[in-house]
Each structure stands twice: as structure tokens, then as C-alpha cells.
Write a structure and sequence with these properties.
The chain is an alpha/beta fold and 305 residues long. The chain has one domain (35-206, 245-303): Rossmann fold (3-Layer(aba) Sandwich). Helix content is 43%, strand content 16%. The protein has 13 helices and seven strands. It has a seven-stranded mixed sheet with strand order 3-2-1-4-5-7-6, sandwiched between helices. Strand 1, helix 5 (79-87) and strand 2 (91-95) form a beta-alpha-beta unit. It is globular, with a radius of gyration of 20 Å. It starts with a helix and ends with a strand. The mean pLDDT is 94.
Length: 305
């Protein structure tokens, strides 16, 4: 599919009454892009374990397992909260800007999660302290509450009660969708929600996710466009990418008061750099280094001072 047609479709749906509801219906019932498959749930579990392993390596795993966890941008599948419940976490908070979870998504996620962890070949079974029960007709919100998991969507009013009370915040492939000014505010609120010495960990795609639908288009195509063009013709309510680079995220974290203690970048290869050199950069990207522009993925861990 031509990526411009995809963008135009999102733009059109964003402008129509009921467009958002129709898009979610299509995702759930037509394209299947929301379905919590074994592959999707397994991938999310691996990221959740990556966060814990990093904390363990830095002698801070107990802050997660014995503390309060906040999942910022929980999304369609509560996979990581289910994993952390199984590892022993007693209190978790799920934040989304709008309500995304529903009974079928929660039920399917629980089914996929249990099928994975009950597989004798799953290598992390010995780390689990308990398992969540099947949903079995229970209201999904009450079910999560019974696991010590509270869902806040929207979450604006939930920050104040948590001030200084959260041990670990995680955010998985969500921050790339948030505009820079909003992200700066979010980082400040996350900082305030954490206890002194608390951690904020996140994974972020840095590559162009639009051009994957069109073979032959450079993965650095998004650097061609000015901020004005990108906001006017590409970003929409249904699909938004900030195009921030790793250095931008680090700067925003430090401005919020964090000490960045882990910062792992998947760098571009020599071939990637050569491909990047063939792209005419918009002026707003000319201040970045080639390495910053070519980077594909970021994991960071930030600590409240």
C-alpha cells in the first residue's frame, strides 16, 4: 500500500463524526490488528522481563516486585501488568489517554498469557509466584481490581493521588506518539508521581513506521518533511508520530529532573547511514548527527533524584 494513501485514510477518518469508533471497530473486527495473539503477548512479556532484568542488574528489582508500578500508555493488552502480578507485584496503575480496554480484549489477553506461562517450555516459569485466574464471566474492570490493578482512562485526575507514591513507571512503544510539548508535561508528572529513587523505564521505536507498508520507500523518508508539512498532512488524531530522536528524549528527561542511568540505542548500520545520506533532510533535522538520525530503537532507564 502507498503510505500516502494510508495517511490520507487516517486523516479522513479523523475528520468524520464517529470516525474514531469506526476505526476501532475495524481494528478489532476486520483487520484483527488489536487481537492479542501469542506472538504479540509473548513480545510484550519479553519487554516486561527486560525492564525487570535491568532493575535486577542494578540491584533495584525489589522496587518493582515489592512496590507500586504504573504502566503509562497501557494500550490494548494488559500483558505487562498480568506478568508483574504473576511475579508478585501487589499494586499497579494503568494509564491511558482514552479508554481502550474492554472485556473481550482483557479476556483474550488473559487466555494468551496463561497459555504461554503454562507451557513447560516457557523458560521463566520458576520466577512466577502466582497466576491470574481466567476471567470466567467476571466484569473485566472488577477482575483487574481484584488483581490490584486500577485502570485510569483518561488519567488527568489520577496524578495527584499518586504523587510521590510510585516505585517504577514503565512505558512500552507509546512515547513516540506523543507531541514534544505534551511529552515534556508527561515526564514532569511521572517524575512527581515517583518516590525519590524511583525508576522510569521505556522502549521507543525510532524508525519510520509508515513506510513499512510500501516496499522500496526509505526507512528515513520521514526526515524529508518539515514540521509544518508533517503536522498538516501526516499526523492525525488516529495516527501521530513525533519523529523525536534519542537525544530529544534524553534532553526532556533531564529537563524534568531525571538522572538518566540507562540509555541503550540500536544504532544504524553502515548501510543505514549510506541510505540516510541519500535523503534530502528537512531543515528541522539538519542539527542532528547522522548517528542520531540513523538510530532505530531506544531503551532508557531514568531515576528520580
Amino acid at each position: 500500500m502507498n503510505w500516502r494513501l494510508k495517511v490520507a485514510g487516517f486523516k479522513a477518518l479523523s475528520s468524520l463524526p464517529g470516525g474514531t469508533a469506526f476505526y476501532r471497530f475495524a481494528q478489532k473486527n476486520l483487520t484483527g490488528s488489536l487481537r492479542p495473539t501469542i506472538e504479540r503477548v509473548s513480545h510484550k512479556m519479553a519487554i516486561g522481563l527486560q525492564y525487570l532484568d535491568w532493575l535486577d542488574e542494578h540491584k533495584a528489582g525489589a522496587q518493582l516486585l515489592g512496590g507500586h508500578h504504573l504502566d503509562f500508555g497501557a494500550g490494548w493488552h494488559p500483558t505487562i501488568p498480568l506478568l508483574y502480578y504473576s511475579l508478585g507485584v501487589e499494586r499497579q496503575h494503568l494509564f491511558d489517554v482514552s479508554a481502550l480496554l474492554d472485556e473481550s480484549l482483557v479476556e483474550l489477553t488473559v487466555e494468551m498469557f496463561l497459555s504461554i506461562v503454562n507451557n513447560p517450555q516457557w523458560p521463566h516459569r520458576s520466577r512466577l509466584r502466582r497466576l491470574p485466574p481466567p476471567l470466567a464471566g467476571t466484569n473485566w474492570a472488577r477482575y483487574l481490581t481484584g488483581l490490584g490493578i486500577s485502570y485510569h482512562a483518561p488519567y488527568d485526575g489520577a496524578w495527584s493521588p499518586l504523587a510521590g507514591g510510585v516505585d517504577v513507571v514503565t512505558s512500552t512503544q507509546v512515547l513516540l506518539h506523543i507531541p514534544k510539548p505534551t511529552l515534556a508535561t508527561s515526564f514532569s508528572k511521572i517524575y512527581s508521581a515517583l518516590k525519590p529513587g524511583g525508576f522510569f523505564l521505556a522502549t521507543i521505536h525510532l524508525r519510520d513506521l509508515l513506510t513499512t507498508v510500501q516496499p522500496g520507500v526509505s526507512k528515513y523518508n520521514h526526515f524529508r518533511y518539515s514540521t509544518e508539512t508533517w503536522e498538516r498532512w501526516v499526523n492525525s488524531h488516529l495516527m501521530s508520530y513525533s519523529r523525536l530522536r534519542a537525544s530529544d528524549y534524553k534532553q526532556l528527561l533531564e529537563q524534568a529532573g531525571f538522572n538518566v542511568v540507562g540509555f541503550e540505542i540500536e544504532s544504524g548500520t553502515a548501510e543505514d547511514l549510506a541510505e540516510l545520506d541519500r535523503i534530502p533532510l528537512a531543515p528541522c533535522f539538519q542539527r542532528y548527527s547522522r548517528e542520531d538520525l540513523a538510530a532505530k530503537h531506544l531503551f532508557f532507564a531514568a531515576k528520580k533524584k
